[in-house]
Amino acid sequence: MRNTPEYNRAYYLAHRAEQTAQRLERALAANFDAGAVLATLDFSSAPGKTSRLWMREDAQLFLRKLDRRSRSKGRVFRCISAVGVGEPPTFRLVFDKANLPSGDTAEVLDAVARLWGLGRVHIAPVDLTEGWRATAEAMLADMPPASGPGHNSVSWKGWGLRRA
Q: Looking at the domain assignment, is residue 163 inside a domain?
């Protein structure tokens, strides 16, 4: 039953997802080191507004706030982000710990939660025991399937990155 349209589509989507994960892994390795953090932000305080366009706009606004904060400290802001449509929808990003306000973990979480303002915030240091592969898979966990031919099955966006 390998030559059915359903099988071919599933194979195509799995292949595209694997390619995207590999590209994301290379981009993470080229732009970040062991001082990176993985932040997971959800949209739990904004029920009913789960449009991907709306989520992407809010995510971009948050990234602009982080960029402005980093530039005010004389740093270059670099991050990779992905918006997932799980329940609740989540926004995951990897960025340098140097872009966070200094202090203990509670102060950092409080500062990022104030900037986000749309739900819960979870920040964890990136675990590099398996390289960047586990981080790439964690970022792409809740991504939606492709919406048609020519669309990636998963997507991510870079901000201020060097080429991989």
A: no
Specify if 70 maps to a domain.
yes
Model confidence over 1-43: pLDDT tens digits?
A: 577 777 777 787 778 778 888 888 888 888 888 888 888 888 8
80 phi and psi, to 5 degrees? -125, 130
Domain region containing 74? 5-158
Total domain count, the chain: 1
Q: Which two tokens stand for residue 117?
A: 């303002």
CATH number at residue 33: 3.40.1310
Q: Contact 66/79 with Cβ under 8 angstroms? A: yes
